[in-house]
Design brief:
heterodimer; A: 391 residues; alpha+beta; Rossmann fold; Jelly Rolls; 2 domains; 4-stranded antiparallel beta sheet; 27% strand; elongated; B: 798 residues; 6-stranded mixed barrel; 6-stranded mixed β-barrel; 24 helices
Amino acid sequence: MKFWQRHQAQSPTVLGAAELDSATAVSPTALIELRNVVKAYQTPVGDFIALRGLDLTIDRGEFVAVVGKSGSGKSTLINMITGIDRPTSGTVMVGNTPVHTLKEGPMAQWRGRNVGVIFQFFQLLPMLSCLENVMLPMDFCDVNDDKEREAIAMHLLEQVEMAEHAHKLPSEVSGGQQQRVAIARALANDPPILVADEPTGNLDSRSAQAVFRLFESLVSQGKTILMVTHDNELARRASRTITLADGELLDEHLAKVFPALPHDQLLAATRQIEPQTYAPDQVIIQAGDEPDRFYIVTAGQAEVLLPDRWGGQQVVATLQNGQYFGEMAILNGSTRNATVRAAGETAVSVITLSPDAFHALIARSPATRADLDRVVAQRTDANKHAAQKGS
Amino acid sequence: MLRPRWHKVLRDLWGNKIRTILVVLSIAIGVFAIGMIIGTQVILQEDMNSSYLATDPANAILYPSGFDQELVYGVRSMPEVREAEGRRSITLRLQVGPDQWRDMNVDVIDDFEDIRLNRVTSEGGAWPPPDKTLLLERASLPLANAGLGDTVTVETAVGKVVEMTVSGLAHDMNKPPAQFVGMPYAYITMDTLEWLGFDRYFNELHIQVAGDTLDKAHIQEVADLVEQKVQKNGQNVYWIWIPEPGKHVANEAVQPMLIILGVLGFLSLFASSFLVINIINGLLAQHTTQIGIMKAVGARKGQIVQMYLVTVVIFGLLSLLVAVPLGALAAYGLTSYLAFLVNFDLQGFRVPMEAIVVEVAVGILVPLLAASYPVIHGAGITVREALSEYGLGQGHFGSSVLDRLLNWFTSRVLSLSRPMRISLRNTIRRKARLLFTLFTLTLGGAIFIGILSVHSSLLATLDDALSYFAYDVSVNFGRDYRIEVLQREAQKVEGVVEADSWIGNTARRIRPNGDEGPNLNILGTQAETNLINPTLVDGRWLLPTDTNAVVLNTLVLKDEPDLHVGDTVTLKIEGEEKEWEVVGIVQGVMTGAIAYANRDYLARELNFVGRAAGIQTIAADKSAAAQAELAKRLQDHFEKLGYQVSGTETVADLRQNIEFQFNIIVVFLAVMAVLIALVGGLGLMGTMSINVMERTREIGVMRAVGASDGAVMRIVLVEGVFVGLLSWVLGSLAAYPIGKLLSDAVGIAFMETPLTYSFAWNGALGWLVAVLVIAALASILPAWNASRLSVRETLAYE
């Protein structure tokens, strides 16, 4: 820990906690904020839009998995954050740094100190030993003196359990070991953010697990990690998953609620969602009404109410972030059979879909329809059970 | 501890040894050439001039009619003269084989212990030479076919044959090298001269002026004063020779040669800088991903630029390690050879500081300059660009008109096999690299052919010169005879087609302002002679009826550019000034400045009517052997008649002597041609290596779909050979003007006139063979490397 503290103290441009808190461009908890980011590439056959007006906020300490098909814009997105690429329009704020405005030279220095980049193919310089590879970012960014650099690099290699291979060339260690060294290199300047582009894509499952555990440990130490992955299993283990399709972010909640839906449908649905916010105790849907929306809770809590035997209403369920409601009446073609209201002392945020959009969404996905039917059946049973209990 | 980035630089250098060696050699060749030339120039300048000045060279030599020591004392007493010395120069015939004789120049020195000017020094044996013996100049030994202690047979112009012992060896730096003139030099005393049957008198007056000995005008003034004094003494002055002050006579020939070599050296450096561009470009292309990674972890462009420029500086330093010592050795070797040719001693091996300074400057700066654009451009790549360059197809093919044309040509017109098409299309994928490689190889080829063209032009010029004076064998006599008799007797000798004599003397132009111009020859010939084939430039040739008409050659006009046809020119011959009318201008080739006049008229002016001291003959058989036999027959014939034959000369011998001198020029030029060809070969090898490295994945794909080792090798080899062929076509085209330029430069440097240009077609064919061999050799290693790559390696290549 000693090394880290000293290291950080000597790196004035590193985004320290105090600096982050005083940042004016992003919200107090946000570390990374992309606003309306568009990235277009000119190709011989016309412009290719890689990112289409992307908005994204990532808080400090989050472990974000970025998923999506090949060509969906994952790498372009993380290149925006690392400054490896610039947006055609829009803003990218990391801490209080407008990354999109930095010139190439300051950008390299900023990146070297603030963002650790990890690649799928490890990309260690083949002519340098593992230790020297880890020292390289400190060398380029003039962080610490020579002796300290070696000690820090060695400490990092110990952290990734590669100390005994410190003096070997990359070609003398396995792929998994190379990736550990690459992670140590990414940590060399103690950056608050790590960005990894398919870090496990070229590793066997055991090595992949080890790397992932390392990431988890780093997140627990306060690092913010963005990781592009094709591995759904690993993505699920991240604290947050964002999905890209055709250069747009799929709504995270929608994607979580309907994991079986293909990305193009999710994207179509994302475009149709309407966010709404309800004050505490405000009724969101009323029993007996015609169904007009499908809801997914994105913040706060919502209570599901059914009539009790005394003519009052009893809370039969509390819905959390990521849970949905309002689907039963739409699916059954009936009126609302329960009331849902905002619970607690904070407002409830929801995203909503119209019945038509909802029907269109499930019409092309029998699996999703089956999932919903199962949930509807479970809820119907639960409601019956609650009604019996209440009576 | 060395920073990781410098570790990377060093390991990059060490890790790819072939590339490092290629680039180091490429730079080294250019630096070597420059170092060799500058080193040679410096050592030669220092040693030749110091050796020359140590001989107390005469500032002027007057050639009066015979004079004695009294006149020498008189000249010494002149305040304008610092030193004066009389010498006698005679020509003897030396027997060099059973039936072989050679003219030998003999200097007669009055007091060997008191040589004041143009010092001759002892090189072993007796000093001074005892009576009836001679000293041989050390560089004359091979020509004299004799050594110290040998007895040689000599014959005087009056036919006296004596045997003399070579009692000692001498060194005389003031004589033109013996091999150049084809005549040995010897030294004897006045007593020996008398014993040989000659009168005791001097015929050369060597003077050193008081005051500025480097001021040619001052020397000329003093020489004129001395001439007046000699004339007052009753002697004629036939000729005054003022050598370039402070400089050895060979300096005039050596310096232009070194300048031409220097230009070629810079050209090879220039060519090698293109290789540096190519290799650094290739290196950066290969390191694109690494540059991306370094930038991704925080490296700025400036840091990357610094790393690669340091790499280039290390290349430069390594090349200096190779080039400086080799350049110094070569410079000393070259200087030693020149010292041997010019006949002086060097002051020992050394590495001139001037050469080192220039070598270090060019060895570091030229590669840095060459690499700066590729490095700055390469380091400017963004991380995204650097990391997104993957897969096949680096060096795009198909987008340009040239690509499509080659595509159509190779597939439709030539119907080449697929691998052959790959080779040819690969050639033009990296167009800038191809251009740089082609430039280097083309330059090498053009200079190679150009240099051979210089050789053929020299020979063509020699042919012109020798056909100008169309005689084959000349006979010189110890005294003058009647021309009619000489002609009649010569015609009697078998093999003589025609015989005629010309007469000559030295003359100087009296310019309109009263100044005297430099010496020129006035040659009296019959107007309708077959012995001279002049190339008329302006006006007309002599007519039998001409009296005071002269035809000047163009070399006269170099010193007297104001003269034109129709002008009247005043010539001073044997102290007499007379006006002549310029009726024509003819081309001058290797003859010096000549004014041609009607023989009979000139003879009357010289009081020499109907007489000549030599005869020129045209032989029926022009071969060298036949000429030598004819010379012998002529000599025997005239000697039987009791004529004093002082020597014979064949044009074949003359040609041989001149060709020997030409060959020295060509050898030096050829050394540079080989260096430039080497640069070209290295360039191609570098290009092919980079191409193979860049196309590793493609080669993997080809192997994956069934290409054998041989097929892969052939693809690379054919590409290399194709580049060689392209360069040959371009080189042959460029060789014509380059050869002309070189020929003009050599001609002006050595003969004061451009050479008769003759393009070396055989040189073009020779270069075709050479470039194919170079291309094949340069491609073999990369081709072999390509064929060694396994599919797994190539497709995993990152």
